[in-house]
Amino acid sequence: MTLLRKLDDDWLTTAAEWLAAEENYRWLDFGGDTQILTPLLLKVMAQRDTHYLRLFAPRENARPIGLVGLSDISPWFKTATLWYVLGDKTYLARGHTTRAVLELLDHGFGRLGLQAITAWAVEINVASIRVLEKVGFRPIGRRRCCHRLGDRYLDRLLFDLLAHEHRSTACLKASNR
């Protein structure tokens, strides 16, 4: 089981450091050519209704190891975009990010009443693609040559998940918790 908790001032600097690490920011895009968020920008982002950000931690250790978020939340269209970062790489491949994403999706489709959540992953980010597939996202297309990594331009693979599809993954959720 993974614990989600609000991003508070005590963890802003750590979360911003995770997001500023090259191994993480290379996969992100916060708009306006912004890949790295300062603690102040992250705090502002966390206070806006268009974002829902949560730290996650394994049950056996209450210390947060990563951040999951819903951004571009539209109450009118009932949509949002999912993103996530495992900050503490000593927890790689243990399922914590997948469980945190499932809990965030429960909140998004349940409490926020969202109907569709989108996500994208750079074509070579196998770990991120695997998380999306495990939680039930379906591929819906690609944006070609739109993500820059150094001097290379790579595709972003596009995914979505609908509320009724998420509810049908109850067995998956139970087996991953």
UniProtKB/TrEMBL annotation:
PROSITE patterns: GNAT (PS51186). Residues 1-160 form the N-acetyltransferase domain. Gene3D superfamilies: 3.40.630.30. Pfam families: Acetyltransf_3. It comes from the Bacteria. PANTHER family: RIBOSOMAL-PROTEIN-SERINE ACETYLTRANSFERASE. This is Acetyltransferase (GNAT) family protein. The lineage of its organism: Bacteria, Pseudomonadati, Pseudomonadota, Gammaproteobacteria, Methylococcales.
